[in-house]
Amino acid sequence: MILVTGGAGYIGSHTVKELLRAGYEVVVVDDLSSGHRELVLTPHFVRADIRDRSALIEVFRKFPITGVMHFAALTSVPESVAEPARYYEVNLWGTFNLLEVMRAFGVKLFVFSSSAAVYGDPEKIPIPEDHPARPKSPYGKTKLMVEEILADYAKAYDFRYVSLRYFNAAGSDPEGEIGEWHEPERHLIPIVLEVAAGKRPYLEIYGTDYETPDGTGIRDYIHVSDLASAHVLALQYLEKGGKSEVFNLGIGRGYSVREVVEICRRVTGREIPVHEAPRRPGDPAILVADPSKAKRVLGWKPRFTELEPIVETAWNWLRKR
Prior knowledge:
Layout: E1 2-5, H1 10-21, E2 26-30, E3 44-47, H2 53-62, E4 67-70, H3 77-82, H4 84-105, E5 109-115, H5 138-156, E6 160-166, E7 168-170, H6 188-196, E8 203-206, E9 218-219, E10 221-223, H7 224-239, E11 245-249, E12 255-256, H8 257-268, E13 274-277, E14 286-287, H9 292-298, H10 307-320
Parallel strand pairs: 1-2, 1-4, 2-3, 4-5, 5-6, 6-11, 7-10, 8-13, 9-14
Antiparallel strand pairs: 9-12
Helix pairs in contact: 1-7, 2-4, 4-5, 6-8, 6-10, 8-10
Protein backbone atom coordinates (compact mmCIF):
# COMPACT_ATOMS: atom_id res chain seq x y z
CA MET A 1 0.00 0.00 0.00
CA ILE A 2 1.20 3.53 -0.87
CA LEU A 3 0.80 6.43 1.54
CA VAL A 4 0.06 9.76 -0.15
CA THR A 5 0.37 12.78 2.13
CA GLY A 6 -1.56 15.79 0.88
CA GLY A 7 -3.64 13.45 -1.28
CA ALA A 8 -6.73 15.67 -0.99
CA GLY A 9 -4.86 18.51 -2.71
CA TYR A 10 -4.50 19.38 -6.37
CA ILE A 11 -1.50 17.33 -7.50
CA GLY A 12 -1.87 14.71 -4.78
CA SER A 13 -5.46 13.85 -5.73
CA HIS A 14 -4.55 13.44 -9.40
CA THR A 15 -1.64 11.19 -8.41
CA VAL A 16 -3.93 9.06 -6.25
CA LYS A 17 -6.10 8.53 -9.33
CA GLU A 18 -3.06 7.44 -11.37
CA LEU A 19 -1.91 5.09 -8.60
CA LEU A 20 -5.33 3.45 -8.41
CA ARG A 21 -5.38 3.12 -12.19
CA ALA A 22 -1.96 1.41 -12.01
CA GLY A 23 -3.33 -1.13 -9.52
CA TYR A 24 -1.95 0.21 -6.24
CA GLU A 25 -3.82 0.38 -2.96
CA VAL A 26 -3.60 3.88 -1.55
CA VAL A 27 -4.10 5.55 1.83
CA VAL A 28 -4.31 9.34 1.96
CA VAL A 29 -3.27 11.50 4.92
CA ASP A 30 -4.40 15.12 4.68
CA ASP A 31 -5.40 17.71 7.28
CA LEU A 32 -7.83 19.33 4.78
CA SER A 33 -6.40 22.77 5.53
CA SER A 34 -6.29 23.37 1.77
CA GLY A 35 -7.37 20.03 0.27
CA HIS A 36 -10.89 18.70 -0.25
CA ARG A 37 -12.26 15.37 0.91
CA GLU A 38 -14.37 15.17 -2.27
CA LEU A 39 -11.19 14.87 -4.38
CA VAL A 40 -9.97 11.73 -2.57
CA LEU A 41 -10.77 8.71 -4.74
CA THR A 42 -9.46 6.02 -2.40
CA PRO A 43 -11.64 4.70 0.47
CA HIS A 44 -8.63 4.83 2.82
CA PHE A 45 -8.45 8.35 4.21
CA VAL A 46 -7.04 9.69 7.50
CA ARG A 47 -7.44 13.32 8.48
CA ALA A 48 -4.18 14.22 10.19
CA ASP A 49 -1.42 16.84 10.26
CA ILE A 50 2.05 15.63 9.28
CA ARG A 51 3.45 17.59 12.23
CA ASP A 52 1.57 15.16 14.53
CA ARG A 53 3.99 12.24 14.84
CA SER A 54 1.63 10.13 16.94
CA ALA A 55 -1.04 10.37 14.25
CA LEU A 56 1.46 9.27 11.61
CA ILE A 57 2.53 6.34 13.77
CA GLU A 58 -1.09 5.19 13.98
CA VAL A 59 -1.38 5.31 10.17
CA PHE A 60 1.74 3.17 9.75
CA ARG A 61 0.48 0.73 12.37
CA LYS A 62 -2.91 0.37 10.67
CA PHE A 63 -1.85 0.11 7.02
CA PRO A 64 0.87 -2.09 5.39
CA ILE A 65 2.71 0.84 3.79
CA THR A 66 5.54 0.01 1.37
CA GLY A 67 6.21 3.46 -0.09
CA VAL A 68 5.38 7.12 0.49
CA MET A 69 4.53 9.99 -1.86
CA HIS A 70 4.86 13.28 -0.05
CA PHE A 71 2.81 16.27 -1.23
CA ALA A 72 1.71 17.78 2.08
CA ALA A 73 3.24 21.28 2.29
CA LEU A 74 2.55 24.98 2.16
CA THR A 75 3.15 26.14 -1.41
CA SER A 76 2.75 29.92 -1.95
CA VAL A 77 5.94 31.82 -2.81
CA PRO A 78 4.61 35.29 -1.78
CA GLU A 79 3.09 33.92 1.44
CA SER A 80 6.39 32.23 2.32
CA VAL A 81 8.16 35.59 2.03
CA ALA A 82 5.60 37.17 4.39
CA GLU A 83 5.34 34.21 6.81
CA PRO A 84 8.55 32.17 6.62
CA ALA A 85 8.11 30.59 10.07
CA ARG A 86 5.00 28.68 8.99
CA TYR A 87 6.81 27.34 5.93
CA TYR A 88 9.80 26.08 7.89
CA GLU A 89 7.55 24.48 10.50
CA VAL A 90 5.21 22.66 8.10
CA ASN A 91 7.53 21.89 5.20
CA LEU A 92 10.62 20.98 7.21
CA TRP A 93 9.38 19.75 10.59
CA GLY A 94 6.44 17.92 8.99
CA THR A 95 8.69 16.15 6.51
CA PHE A 96 11.21 15.23 9.22
CA ASN A 97 8.38 13.69 11.27
CA LEU A 98 7.30 11.64 8.28
CA LEU A 99 10.81 10.43 7.51
CA GLU A 100 11.41 9.38 11.09
CA VAL A 101 8.17 7.38 11.23
CA MET A 102 9.12 5.73 7.94
CA ARG A 103 12.47 4.77 9.45
CA ALA A 104 10.81 3.34 12.53
CA PHE A 105 8.56 1.13 10.39
CA GLY A 106 11.22 0.14 7.85
CA VAL A 107 9.60 1.91 4.86
CA LYS A 108 12.38 2.68 2.40
CA LEU A 109 10.88 4.24 -0.75
CA PHE A 110 10.02 7.94 -0.95
CA VAL A 111 8.79 10.16 -3.81
CA PHE A 112 9.05 13.85 -2.98
CA SER A 113 7.05 16.73 -4.41
CA SER A 114 9.78 19.32 -4.99
CA SER A 115 9.75 22.45 -7.13
CA ALA A 116 11.55 24.49 -9.76
CA ALA A 117 11.62 27.18 -7.05
CA VAL A 118 14.87 25.56 -5.84
CA TYR A 119 16.71 27.07 -8.83
CA GLY A 120 16.06 30.78 -8.32
CA ASP A 121 17.10 33.00 -11.21
CA PRO A 122 18.33 30.68 -13.97
CA GLU A 123 21.76 31.03 -15.56
CA LYS A 124 20.60 29.13 -18.64
CA ILE A 125 17.33 28.09 -20.25
CA PRO A 126 16.10 25.37 -20.31
CA ILE A 127 17.16 24.47 -16.77
CA PRO A 128 18.87 21.08 -16.21
CA GLU A 129 18.91 19.25 -12.88
CA ASP A 130 22.59 20.11 -12.26
CA HIS A 131 21.87 23.85 -12.48
CA PRO A 132 22.99 25.73 -9.32
CA ALA A 133 20.23 25.86 -6.69
CA ARG A 134 19.76 29.37 -5.32
CA PRO A 135 16.12 29.66 -4.24
CA LYS A 136 14.72 33.19 -3.90
CA SER A 137 11.93 32.43 -1.41
CA PRO A 138 11.52 30.58 1.89
CA TYR A 139 9.21 28.18 0.00
CA GLY A 140 11.98 27.29 -2.45
CA LYS A 141 14.47 27.03 0.40
CA THR A 142 12.29 24.51 2.25
CA LYS A 143 12.10 22.33 -0.86
CA LEU A 144 15.88 22.44 -1.31
CA MET A 145 16.48 21.74 2.38
CA VAL A 146 14.25 18.67 2.21
CA GLU A 147 16.18 17.45 -0.84
CA GLU A 148 19.41 17.82 1.16
CA ILE A 149 17.89 15.89 4.07
CA LEU A 150 16.82 13.14 1.69
CA ALA A 151 20.33 12.89 0.25
CA ASP A 152 21.76 12.51 3.78
CA TYR A 153 19.16 9.87 4.70
CA ALA A 154 19.96 7.92 1.54
CA LYS A 155 23.67 7.90 2.43
CA ALA A 156 23.19 6.94 6.07
CA TYR A 157 20.17 4.63 6.03
CA ASP A 158 18.62 1.91 3.88
CA PHE A 159 16.51 4.47 2.04
CA ARG A 160 15.98 5.58 -1.56
CA TYR A 161 14.08 8.54 -2.95
CA VAL A 162 13.11 10.39 -6.10
CA SER A 163 12.71 14.16 -5.91
CA LEU A 164 10.51 15.59 -8.64
CA ARG A 165 11.08 19.28 -9.35
CA TYR A 166 8.02 20.43 -11.12
CA PHE A 167 7.52 23.62 -12.94
CA ASN A 168 3.96 25.07 -13.16
CA ALA A 169 1.22 22.49 -12.69
CA ALA A 170 -1.88 23.31 -14.69
CA GLY A 171 -5.08 21.82 -16.06
CA SER A 172 -7.42 19.25 -14.56
CA ASP A 173 -8.30 15.59 -14.93
CA PRO A 174 -9.32 15.18 -18.61
CA GLU A 175 -12.17 12.89 -17.49
CA GLY A 176 -13.57 15.63 -15.27
CA GLU A 177 -13.67 13.49 -12.14
CA ILE A 178 -11.38 15.77 -10.11
CA GLY A 179 -9.63 19.06 -10.74
CA GLU A 180 -7.91 22.17 -9.46
CA TRP A 181 -9.66 23.63 -6.41
CA HIS A 182 -7.88 26.17 -4.23
CA GLU A 183 -9.49 28.58 -1.79
CA PRO A 184 -8.29 31.20 -2.37
CA GLU A 185 -6.98 30.44 -5.85
CA ARG A 186 -3.33 31.47 -6.37
CA HIS A 187 -2.44 29.86 -9.70
CA LEU A 188 -2.42 31.93 -12.86
CA ILE A 189 -4.48 29.81 -15.27
CA PRO A 190 -7.49 29.20 -12.99
CA ILE A 191 -7.44 32.87 -11.95
CA VAL A 192 -7.51 33.94 -15.61
CA LEU A 193 -10.39 31.51 -16.22
CA GLU A 194 -12.27 32.85 -13.18
CA VAL A 195 -12.06 36.28 -14.81
CA ALA A 196 -13.40 34.77 -18.03
CA ALA A 197 -16.25 33.17 -16.06
CA GLY A 198 -17.17 36.46 -14.39
CA LYS A 199 -16.02 35.35 -10.93
CA ARG A 200 -13.37 38.09 -10.81
CA PRO A 201 -13.48 41.55 -12.38
CA TYR A 202 -9.97 41.45 -13.86
CA LEU A 203 -6.56 39.75 -13.78
CA GLU A 204 -3.63 41.40 -12.05
CA ILE A 205 -0.37 40.90 -13.95
CA TYR A 206 2.44 41.07 -11.40
CA GLY A 207 5.43 42.56 -13.16
CA THR A 208 5.56 43.89 -16.71
CA ASP A 209 9.21 45.00 -16.67
CA TYR A 210 10.99 41.64 -16.72
CA GLU A 211 13.71 41.05 -19.30
CA THR A 212 11.41 38.94 -21.47
CA PRO A 213 9.96 39.60 -24.94
CA ASP A 214 6.72 41.13 -23.62
CA GLY A 215 7.92 42.14 -20.14
CA THR A 216 5.92 39.53 -18.25
CA GLY A 217 7.18 36.41 -16.48
CA ILE A 218 7.62 33.19 -18.46
CA ARG A 219 6.75 29.77 -17.05
CA ASP A 220 6.70 26.16 -18.21
CA TYR A 221 3.17 24.74 -17.74
CA ILE A 222 2.79 21.00 -17.26
CA HIS A 223 -0.54 19.18 -17.15
CA VAL A 224 -1.33 17.81 -13.70
CA SER A 225 -2.12 14.34 -15.08
CA ASP A 226 1.32 14.21 -16.70
CA LEU A 227 2.81 15.15 -13.33
CA ALA A 228 0.80 12.36 -11.72
CA SER A 229 1.98 9.76 -14.23
CA ALA A 230 5.59 10.78 -13.54
CA HIS A 231 5.06 10.07 -9.84
CA VAL A 232 3.85 6.55 -10.59
CA LEU A 233 6.84 5.98 -12.88
CA ALA A 234 9.17 7.28 -10.16
CA LEU A 235 7.69 4.85 -7.64
CA GLN A 236 8.03 1.95 -10.06
CA TYR A 237 11.62 3.01 -10.78
CA LEU A 238 12.40 2.79 -7.05
CA GLU A 239 10.56 -0.53 -6.69
CA LYS A 240 12.81 -1.96 -9.41
CA GLY A 241 15.93 -0.92 -7.45
CA GLY A 242 16.61 2.48 -9.01
CA LYS A 243 19.06 4.73 -7.18
CA SER A 244 18.06 7.99 -5.55
CA GLU A 245 17.58 10.69 -8.18
CA VAL A 246 16.27 14.18 -8.94
CA PHE A 247 14.17 14.90 -12.04
CA ASN A 248 12.69 18.02 -13.63
CA LEU A 249 9.09 17.82 -14.79
CA GLY A 250 7.99 20.31 -17.43
CA ILE A 251 7.25 20.37 -21.14
CA GLY A 252 10.41 22.32 -21.98
CA ARG A 253 8.61 25.35 -23.39
CA GLY A 254 7.73 28.63 -21.71
CA TYR A 255 4.69 30.89 -22.01
CA SER A 256 4.54 34.48 -20.78
CA VAL A 257 1.65 35.76 -18.67
CA ARG A 258 0.35 37.74 -21.64
CA GLU A 259 0.50 34.61 -23.84
CA VAL A 260 -1.44 32.65 -21.20
CA VAL A 261 -4.15 35.35 -21.22
CA GLU A 262 -4.41 35.22 -25.01
CA ILE A 263 -4.72 31.43 -25.02
CA CYS A 264 -7.41 31.63 -22.34
CA ARG A 265 -9.28 34.17 -24.46
CA ARG A 266 -9.18 31.79 -27.42
CA VAL A 267 -10.32 28.78 -25.40
CA THR A 268 -13.17 30.57 -23.62
CA GLY A 269 -14.20 33.04 -26.30
CA ARG A 270 -14.48 35.66 -23.54
CA GLU A 271 -12.94 39.02 -22.79
CA ILE A 272 -10.38 38.96 -19.98
CA PRO A 273 -9.60 42.44 -18.55
CA VAL A 274 -6.12 42.87 -17.06
CA HIS A 275 -4.55 45.35 -14.65
CA GLU A 276 -0.79 45.76 -14.39
CA ALA A 277 0.81 45.57 -10.93
CA PRO A 278 4.36 45.59 -9.51
CA ARG A 279 6.45 42.42 -9.35
CA ARG A 280 5.95 40.08 -6.40
CA PRO A 281 8.97 39.26 -4.22
CA GLY A 282 10.54 35.88 -4.90
CA ASP A 283 9.43 35.51 -8.53
CA PRO A 284 12.17 34.80 -11.13
CA ALA A 285 11.65 36.17 -14.65
CA ILE A 286 11.88 32.84 -16.52
CA LEU A 287 11.53 29.21 -15.47
CA VAL A 288 11.60 26.59 -18.22
CA ALA A 289 12.54 22.95 -17.66
CA ASP A 290 14.89 20.61 -19.39
CA PRO A 291 12.81 17.42 -18.85
CA SER A 292 15.03 15.11 -20.92
CA LYS A 293 16.37 13.17 -17.93
CA ALA A 294 12.91 12.11 -16.73
CA LYS A 295 12.03 11.01 -20.25
CA ARG A 296 15.25 9.04 -20.60
CA VAL A 297 15.46 7.40 -17.16
CA LEU A 298 11.80 7.03 -16.19
CA GLY A 299 10.39 6.56 -19.68
CA TRP A 300 8.05 9.49 -19.02
CA LYS A 301 6.03 10.71 -22.01
CA PRO A 302 3.79 13.72 -21.27
CA ARG A 303 0.51 13.65 -23.20
CA PHE A 304 0.00 17.41 -23.12
CA THR A 305 2.80 19.31 -24.85
CA GLU A 306 0.90 22.49 -25.79
CA LEU A 307 -0.79 24.96 -23.45
CA GLU A 308 -4.13 25.29 -25.24
CA PRO A 309 -5.38 21.72 -24.54
CA ILE A 310 -4.16 22.10 -20.94
CA VAL A 311 -6.28 25.23 -20.57
CA GLU A 312 -9.25 23.42 -22.14
CA THR A 313 -9.22 20.80 -19.36
CA ALA A 314 -9.04 23.55 -16.73
CA TRP A 315 -11.95 25.44 -18.35
CA ASN A 316 -14.06 22.28 -18.55
CA TRP A 317 -13.50 21.60 -14.83
CA LEU A 318 -14.28 25.20 -13.82
CA ARG A 319 -17.56 25.16 -15.73
CA LYS A 320 -18.48 21.78 -14.21
CA ARG A 321 -17.68 22.90 -10.66
